[in-house]
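Much of our argument rests on the idea that a fold can be written as discrete symbols. Part of our work consisted of pairing the sequence of a single chain with a tokenised description of its backbone. No coordinates are needed to read the tokens, only the vocabulary itself. The record that follows shows the chain in one-letter code together with its fold in token form.
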Amino acid sequence: MKFSFNIWKEEISLAVLLAGAIVSVKATRPVPPDSTSARILQAKAGASVELPEFAFQKSRQLSYRKLVLPGPQFLISDDPEYIRVPEAAVFRERVLPGTVRFYLYNVNGVKEPQKMDRKITALIKNLGSGPMRLQMLKYSAQPPGGDYLKIGSQGLADYFASQPSPKVRQVKAGQAVALDEKWEKTTVSYDDLVHGFYEFLIDQPAEITVLQTSPGTPGPTALARNPTVLPGKSKSGAGRGVFGVSNYRVQPDSVFDTRHGAAEITVADGQRDPWVEGTASHTPETAVLKGNYGVLYDINIRWRSTDGRGLALLTRNARGGGPNNNWCGAMATSVVVSAGLHPGGIVKLPSDKAATKKEPEAVVIQVFAPPADGQEQLIHLTYSPPGASCLPTPITLVPVDMQAK
């Protein structure tokens, strides 16, 4: 006869009738610890872990409410992603006075007549009748390179960490200047990515143009030649234009309880969370941002523990090993998370290697101990879809046995 016991010990009470007496006998047998919990608890924040016993695909999906938050005007330049023409514009859009978020993601793709060094720069032109004041509020710009995953992850980390600049630039009426003067001094080799993530404040209407030109040509000079805006490439690039959403707040519909087992929050998948839409000057059609790159998600998770277990937040490359493995074989990102067993703040995912590959590998974001009083707790997570990574990158909530370490 076979018995099923709890994972930590078994107690067998045998009533034995012997010489008219009843004797109670107890036997205890150790059971192997929870290896998934042990691996998670032994890892630092941002560390990669192998979890072969954990079935990610069987985790239930948490339904959530999604609220559009007030935010800046949001622009992205990522279509065509690869600029194949030696001198051309790939983006030209107008913005109103106020705060603007701008995500620049373009690659020197010139192969004809030969591969050559180029410059990719973003220009802002004052369309107002008076001087324009320009102040950078958030700034992130990585050296151009071929490690797109590293650039995307570090770009997010730098954006989250940045503070408003005390410098206020003055731009004359009708004048065009480099939005980021760094790019005016930077040579971009073939196949290298230019990645910038900015928020800035202006007090006049303006026009932003992204263009590619020769390293020795000043951006305003190239702009004065009125380069043609290239058509989009459907197979390369997430999108371009001005989009109607820059910030979301996401909150699951119910309080997560560890006794119900693992679950996932999935955003930026184009299904549960549709792609944001907007307008683009180069087409009368609705612009679609496939990936919601550059959109910030304020994720609020309410949780409690009625079984004494703690809670771990993990992420992973959900597309690894799939049919697009040449492009989706790895993932790297950065988030901001509440304090738990590890300090709160910016966490690079992963922090111990260049990128995470595919299941059963996952990355630990944070671990939270069960509250002593059993009361509901709140976790804050700031997330944005990681540039250069395939989506989605789900947030997995895993109950952990705090004694397993």
The CA atoms of residues 98 and 209 lie 18 Å apart.
